[in-house]
Amino acid sequence: MRGRRRLPREWWVGYLLIAPFFLLFGAFTVYPMIYALELSFSDWHGAGTLHWVGWSNYTYLLTNHDFWVSLGNSAIMWLLIVPIQTIGAIAIATALTRSRLRFKKTLRTVVILPFVTPLAAMAQAFILIFDKDFGVVNAFLKFLGGPSIGWLTTTTWAKPTIALFVLWKTSGFALIIMLAAVQGIPSEVYEAASIDGAGALRTFFSVTVPLVRRTIGFFVVVSTLGISQMFLEPYVITRGGPYNSSTTSGLYLYNHITASDLGTGAANSFILVVLVFLLSLVAIRVLRSKED
Questions:
Q1: DSSP letters along 228-275, please?
Q2: At what angle do helices 262-287 and 213-228 cross, to 10 degrees?
C-alpha cells in the first residue's frame, strides 16, 4: 500500500501463533469476568432472564452478619497459618541448605509428601485422628489424665484444628518456594556474617529473611488468595460448623451458589477480589525493600 509501511511477514506469523492464547484467554477469562460482573448487579437463579437490581446484592452482603462472620473466620485462619508457615518454611529451607544434616533428601520428601497427597484422603485421616470419642489425640490426652476435647465440634477449637490441617497439607508448597529462594543466597554472605560474630538466630533474621523478602511477599500474596478461596478443608472436615465458626469466605460463597442465588454469589466474589487486591498491595508495601 502506497505511503504506508508494511509489516514483515514474520510479524504476521508471530501474531498468528499467539492468537490461540488470546482467543482462549478472552473466551474463558475475560468474558466470564464481564458476565460475572453483570451478574453481580442482577437477580438470577440459574434460569430465566436477568433482573437488574443495582447495588442490592452488595448492600445485602455488607449488612449481612454471616458474611462478616465468614470474613472474620478467614482472617483468623490467615493469622493462624501464614505467619507460622512463612517463618517455618524459611527456617526449614535454611536448615536443609546451610547445615550438614544427614538424610536431607528424605526430610524434603517427608515435608513435601502431604502437599501431593489427595486432600480428601488426608481430611478423612485427620478427622479420625481428632475425633472426640475415638481419636488418637484425645486417647493420648486421656492417658495423660487430661480432658477429652471436641477438636472439630466446638467453636473454640474448630478453626485452630482446620488451620493445623492446612499447615500440614500445604507446608510442602511453602518449602519448595523458600528452598529455591534460600539456595540463591551466596555463601559469602553467611561467611561475612559469621566473621562479624553473628549467631544462628541473628543470621536468620538479619541475613536470610531480608534477602528473601521478595519471595516472602510473593508467598504472602498467594497464601492470602488461597485462604480467601478456602473451601474444601472446612467443607470436608466440619461443613462450616459448629454454628458457622469455621465457615470461611470461600465456603460462604459456595453456599450462595448451591442455593442458586447466583447474583449474590457473584457480588460476593467481587468483594473478595477487591479485598484480596487491597491486602496484597499492603503486603507488598510492607515487605518491599529499600532498593525497590
A1: HT--HHHHHHTTT-STTTT--HHHHHHHHHHTT-HHHHHHHHHHHHHH
A2: 160
User: How much of the chain, in percent, has pLDDT values that exceed 90?
Assistant: 36
Q: Is the pLDDT of residue 273 over 50?
A: yes
86, 259 Cβ separation under 8 angstroms: no
pLDDT exceeds 90 at position 102:
no
Q: Is 291 left (phi over 0), alpha (psi -120 to 50) or beta?
A: alpha
Q: Is the sign of the CA dihedral 215, 220, 225, 226 positive or negative?
A: positive
Q: Is 260 left (phi over 0), alpha (psi -120 to 50) or beta?
A: left
Percent helix / strand / coil, the chain, rounded to 5: 70, 0, 25
Contact 175, 110 (CB under 8 A): no
Q: How does DSSP classify residue 215?
A: H
Which residue in this structure is represented by grid cell 508457615?
A: 85
DSSP β-bridge partners for residue 249: none
Strand-pairing partners, residue 131, are: none
d(CA 66, CA 181): 40
Q: Is the pLDDT of residue 28 over 80?
A: yes
Identity (one letter) of the amino acid at 215?
T
Residues in the chain: 292
DSSP 3-state assignment of 42? strand
